[in-house]
Hints:
The protein is α/β, with parallel strands linked by helices. It is built from ten helices and eleven strands. It starts with a strand and ends in a 10-residue tail after the last helix.
Amino acid sequence: MDIVHYQLAQPWWMLGLFLIPLLWWWKKKKYALGQESMTYSHISLEGGHTSLRTRLMPFLDVPFYLGLAFLVVALARPQKILAEEKVKADGIDIMLAMDLSSSMLSRDFDPDRLEVSKMVAKEFVEKRKYDRIGLVAFARESYTQCPLTPDHKVIQDLLDQLIVGILDDGTAIGMGLSNAVNRLKDSQAKSRIIILLTDGENNAGYIDPMTASEIAETLGIKVYTIAIGTTGRALSPIQKTADGRYIFGMQNVNIDETLLKNISEQTHGKYFRALDRKGLEEIYAEIDRLEKTKIEITAFKRYQDFYHIFIMIGLALVLGWWILKQTYFSLFKVVR
């Protein structure tokens, strides 16, 4: 990628800008001391009548001083620096496994566990600039929402589209984990990880979670498990009406923490418990710190002078000032 910066090759010339107001002050003082006479082109000016030229006379020297300023800047040699960076990154392949069981609508998080999980996951994806990321979802069964991709905008959009109800209700942790493992098994990345987030206990699916964990460990895939949900009781879905709406009531929060700990320990990952949004953000931040992508950046710099633009503008202003002084204002000398 190219990064454009600007610099002055000889910045000490910019001190010359301080001489311009001194020159203006000296000229003004010279007129004030009466060292210049006053000549009129028409006798009517002595009677107090003013013309366009007399009104513009106080500004006659403005182009001259501006022209000097541009010439001083030209002496400082402004340059454009084109810094070309070549990035070589040993990226990490990451699969996000997200629980879509109805309990993810519990309102111990604002607005609910699923929405907070999606928002925090999107922030995590934004930080993993050089990694490929994929997404699987699970409830009673599991499906791939997105295979591994470097297009993080796609992942963020697909996270937004995750909703409860597109799968039969239940929590098949083994199915979700095995699906994520299957998406990583052919990856050539040096580091492959799964971030599995759930709020319940394994109660569905035909693949045992520990069997999926053993396969992950054999393939060298690390699993970070996150249990999301407060302790005690939470306002959760307890029934679904015929038109698809959920009825909420207070329910005990039951999470199989032992299972999640065993999965992370077996695969050399880590287990986390998120009790609120801030805690979940801190968990993703810690995973971000633990799984650093190795990046090598080689920078090449090219310099391009563009002082000639300032020279042309400066000379044009000074020349314009001289032409005006010798023509339109040639018969005037006014105290300024």
